[in-house]
Amino acid sequence: MDFYINHLNSNQVMAFGLMWNVLPMLGALLVHLAFSAAVFNDANRLQREQGSPVLVNAWLWSLAVLVGGVFVALAYWVMHHSTLARR
Questions:
Q1: Which of 11, 23, 33, 74 is such that its CA lies 20 to 30 A from the CA of 83?
Q2: Helices 58-68/10-50 angle, 10° precision
Q3: Could you give the CA distance from residue 39 to residue 86 in angstroms, rounded to a whole number?
Q4: What Rg, from alpha-carbon coordinates, does the chain have?
Q5: pLDDT at 2 > cutoff 90
Q6: CB 83: neighbour CB atoms within 10 A?
Q7: Phi and psi, residue 16, nearest 5°
Q8: Which of 49, 51, 43, 31 minimizes the C-alpha distance to 80?
Q9: More confident: 57 or 10
């Protein structure tokens, strides 16, 4: 049985291409959501233990990580948990 791309109709080809375009976006969305939830929980913990997170409150850090992703989460970590953080 020979399988050539010419035997696929245009709807099958479009659905296959759409699947490979949507999967990376879903992965990025999941990473953003996971990092945002982790930062929110950590910022709330910091607020209970130390008064407040640096610059803004927990929900704004969470929103920033949701939009900015891993790079904003890295900035959060540097400002709160690295050896560069003010204690």
A1: 33
A2: 150
A3: 18
A4: 21
A5: no
A6: 6
A7: -65, -45
A8: 43
A9: 57
Torsion angle (degrees, nearest 10) of CA 24, 42, 58, 73: -40
Q: Which of 44, 49, 45 is nearest to 59 (CA)?
A: 44
The answer to whether 73 and 37 are in contact (CB under 8 A) is no
Query: Which tokens hold the place of 59?
Result: 């929900």
- Tokens 């990580």 locate to 65
Q: Give me the count of residues in the chain.
A: 87
Q: What is the pLDDT of residues 25-44, one digit of tens each?
A: 999 999 999 999 999 999 99
pLDDT of residue 21: 80
Its pTM stands at 0.74
